[in-house]
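Pilot study result, target chain (395 residues):
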Amino acid sequence: MGGIERAITIEDLRRGALRRLPRFLGDYIERGAGNGDGVRRNIEAFAKYLFLPRGLMPVAAVDTTRRLFGRSYAQGFGIAPVGGVGIFRRHGEEMLAEAAREADIPFLLSGLSTSPIEKVARLAPDHVWSQLYAAKDPAVTDRMVRRAQDAGVQVLVVTVDYPVANRSEVTARSGVSLAAGPDWRKAPAIVLDAMRHPAWTWEFVREGGMPVLESWQPYAAAGRTAPQVAAYVGSMWPATLVWSDLETIRRLWPGRLIVKGLGHPADLLRAAELGADAAIVSSHGGNKLDCMAASIDLLAQAAPLVGDRLPLLFDGGIRRGADIVKAMALGAQFCFVGRATLYGVVAGGRAGAARAIDILRSEAAYVQAMIGCPTLADVDRNMIAAKQAAGTLGN
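Predicted structure:
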């Protein structure tokens, strides 16, 4: 607990998480797709958007609350979905849900979670959203949608930016696939790596090894082991979705529907026409493609073109509270953080997740005050210096 309390920035939590994890897991988090440029670009792109503060404003106590879908959250950000959190920290998804509940922010449970939606929704019934990774079998997708509804979830997030299987250079080099398990031809290096990180290794062994992907387990044959369930997931996902699939899901789901992974303005407008309630502009945390534009640049370009026809949410590269405020200034109505809270939960469990949230909360509130915005509603494009506000890709 003491070490977590001393963490001042998300970078401090990142270092703590990477010290705890074997390199084959740390690299998986850090590198994303290809050569890792997508992850780096998402982070570095924020630097070119600079604030133009207003002075003499009543900001002694700023209002950080944000309304979304008819309710108010304590902050303008929530926790993004991260697949297989239980591999990095056992029961990590449950810890993140509890931390989100205590902070009064939304938690988006991954469609590749190691904790079941039923359990997580019971822990934080008013704060849990569910991510949907559609299956190749439409009947399985139908069951997933109804399962989320039966669990009491109000918001379904359909992720649409993985039409084909991921190409992971990290997996190829390390010999460890989070889905298929280790390549035993590289066993000596894997074992040595694990031995150098005893806290993670002891937890992994004590908890019975590889956790089951509970988000998919009910659809595989009864009694399947973790590797067998992972193999089933590999046979069913990713599904190459088209617009008619999204229309079908919209008809099935009675609650709020968000589409995650769109960035092109034409796609965002089409999602609005099909009845989406919002879209998350995202590059999948740099895990999709290492040669696509940074998420914040996608948002800056799309927001003026989409206007008020579809609420735009955002994730990608957030490491500072200032990044959250910048995204809102550029058109995001709400933001989500993935790696930042993952670092926290890996480094320090539930306390670490809470610390990550508190770091971002305090940083964002400070920036909000310093740029002269008493409420988050006051944060808009006028707060960004003119040259950067154009939002043209490649600025």
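One observation from the pilot: Residues 339-370 form the longest helix (32 residues). A full batch analysis is planned for the follow-on phase.
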